[in-house]
Design a protein that fits this description.
This protein has one domain: Peptide Deformylase (Alpha-Beta Complex), CATH 3.90.45.10. It contains three helices and seven strands. The strands form two sheets. A five-stranded antiparallel β-sheet has the order 1-2-3-6-7. A two-stranded antiparallel ribbon has the order 4-5. β6 and β7 form a beta hairpin. The longest helix is centred in the last third of the chain and has 20 residues. The two termini are 28 Å apart. The relative contact order is 0.18. The structure holds ligand K2U and zinc ion (ZN). The site of ligand K2U has 16 residues, from β1, β4 and α2.
Length: 173
């Protein structure tokens, strides 16, 4: 298991549409394992492969936040939203690729997602609450979309400039 560096916006690799995973090889299981370790270390409750520089349709998440509740690490390969509720929900979102920036984002409150798990089994689950927000945030990453893309152009530009400055300062350090 290894912790992988997380790409920081702006980065063209975060804007690419990721390619479907052709088969569940051991390399995919290893990547998912590394992504979960990287996510817990961040800490975060979700992580998509493009965020660690791999342009493949794989995401991990564990949105269990209650202390004492057993963690529920999930790895979704080639995930697809097959149904989304009309009802919308507003949630404050952040992103491990856009550190320290948060905004209220509106998304369908509930989604049905179909994916292949690491055993190669087809799965389908109905997500609500924070799980629904998170899985939609992660699937957006697979399509090269960031939560700031839902903001107005001025706010998005301000955040992008702030991140670019942060990266320049880090590069100088
Ligand atoms: O994709 C990522 O960057 C991981 C996000 C996922 C996420 C963002 C917004 C809402 C739900 C999930 C990170 O977990 S950011 C840290 C975080 C943790 C809890 C709630 C919001 C943000
Ligand atoms: Zn994110």
């Amino acid at each position: 298991m290894s912790i992988r560096p997380i790409l920081i916006h702006p980065d063209p690799r975060l804007k690419k549409t990721a390619r479907p995973v052709p088969e569940i090889a051991d390399s995919v299981r290893k990547l998912a394992e590394d992504m979960l370790e990287t996510m817990y270390d961040a800490p975060g409750i979700g992580l998509a492969a493009p965020q660690v520089g791999v342009s493949s349709r794989l995401l991990v998440m564990d949105c269990v936040k209650e202390e004492g509740e057993a963690p529920r690490p999930m790895a979704l390969v080639n995930p697809e939203v097959t149904w989304a509720s009309e009802e919308l929900a507003l949630h404050e979102e952040g992103c491990l690729s856009i550190p320290e920036q948060y905004a209220e984002i509106e998304r369908p409150a509930e989604v049905m997602v179909r994916w292949t798990d690491l055993d190669g089994q087809e799965r389908q689950e109905h997500f609500t609450g924070l799980w629904a927000t998170c899985v939609q945030h992660e699937i957006d990453h697979l399509d090269g979309k960031l939560f700031i893309d839902y903001l107005g152009p001025l706010k998005r530009q301000m955040i992008t400039r702030k991140m670019a400055k942060l990266k320049r300062e880090k590069a100088r350090a």
